Amino acid sequence: MANPLVVRAEDLVKTFGKRTALNHLDLAVKQGQLYGLAGPNGAGKTTLIRTLCGLIRPDHGAAYLLGWQMPSTRVRSQLGYMPQDFAVYDDLSVLQNLEFFGELYGLRRAEVHRRADELLDLVQLSDRRRDRVGSFSGGMRRRVSLAISLLHKPRLVFLDEPTAGVDPKLRRNFWDYFNALADGGVTMVVTTHLVEEALRCHMVGFLMDGSLLTEGTPEGILAQTDAANLDDAFIRLQERGEEDRT
Ligand SMILES: Nc1ncnc2c1ncn2[C@@H]1O[C@H](COP(=O)(O)OP(=O)(O)OP(=O)(O)O)[C@@H](O)[C@H]1O
Ligand SMILES: [Mg+2]
């Protein structure tokens, strides 16, 4: 089957009190696609990812990952998720964090150490592997969290603002790696507020008020909005969304 749908959301609705975080949202992501989720603060990006991963139950609609309706334990070993508020254990060293999560994923110790070498090289924390994560800066903790989410070589990865607070040089390395993973057939859904990151995605979805306002290749979104650059395009889309609201 060529490019089967790896992520499918149908008519997702999620409200928190009076707030609608997801408003009849449909989404489809193909295998090997690097899909960027953009949109203003509070647009619903994190809620969407958490719902897709089965961590939030929608009020209405359904989410399917790798063909399984979520929540499902069947996809756990193939799914990587890096939360926006990165989950790391402060009391443990970098390596101990990786060993702990490796055990959860059912990896052998030798495999964890092999992967640790590769991923700590990526996030440039090889020389800090024995340091306690609690002593790290925010950006460094985020880097540990990214390494954890990729440890078990997942086929499908959700990264919620993986580069927030990460310096530009390393950010570029991360995106080179994301592109390489996607080239290797890994499906990636990544939220971002940065235009240069959106430009590296195969597809970009622009969320606002819990709806997918538009979706397309970065070039397609430029054409749709008749904007000179993607920054202007996103601002135009947000303004259109605000007009529709009133
Ligand atoms: N646990 C919660 N309880 C109450 N309201 C929530 C909860 N989680 C999200 N919301 C609300 O749902 C809406 C969408 O929030 P969400 O965190 O999904 O946005 P986001 O697009 O990820 O924003 P950001 O770019 O700031 O990360 C917001 O109005 C937010 O206040
Ligand atoms: Mg968010």
CATH superfamily: P-loop containing nucleotide triphosphate hydrolases
- Strand fraction equals 25-35%
Q: What is the makeup of the main sheet?
A: 6 strands, mixed
The CATH topology annotation reads as Rossmann fold
Assembly type of the shown chains? single chain
The CATH architecture can be given as 3-Layer(aba) Sandwich
- Helix count? 8
N-to-C span? 44 Å
Number of domains: 1
Rg computed from alpha carbons, rounded to a whole number of angstroms: 18 Å
Q: Tell me roughly what share of residues is in helical segments.
A: 25-40%
Order of helices and strands: EEEHEEEHHHEHEHEEHH
Mean pLDDT equals 94
Bound molecules: adenosine-5'-triphosphate, magnesium ion
Low-confidence runs of at least 5 consecutive residues: none
Strand order of the largest sheet: 6-7-8-3-9-10
Topology, pairings included?
Elements lengths: L4 E12 L2 E12 L3 E5 L6 H8 L7 E6 L2 E2 L9 E4 L11 H11 L4 H14 L15 H13 L5 E4 L8 H16 L3 E5 L3 H4 L4 E6 L2 E6 L1 H8 L4 H16 L1
Parallel strand pairs: 3-8, 3-9, 6-7, 7-8
Antiparallel strand pairs: 1-2, 1-4, 4-5, 9-10
Helix pairs in contact: 2-3, 7-8
Bound molecules: adenosine-5'-triphosphate (ATP) and magnesium ion.
The site of adenosine-5'-triphosphate has 12 residues, from β2 and α1.
Report on this model:
With 246 residues, this protein is an alpha/beta fold. Helices cover 37% and strands 25% of the residues. It is built from 8 helices and 10 strands. The strands form 2 sheets. A 6-stranded mixed sheet has the order 6-7-8-3-9-10, sandwiched between helices. A 4-stranded antiparallel sheet has the order 2-1-4-5, covered by helices on one side. Helix 2 (94-104) crosses helix 3 (109-122) and helix 7 packs across helix 8 (230-245). It is globular, with a radius of gyration of 18 Å. The model has no long low-confidence stretch (mean pLDDT 94). The structure holds adenosine-5'-triphosphate and magnesium ion. The site of adenosine-5'-triphosphate has 12 residues, from strand 2 and helix 1.
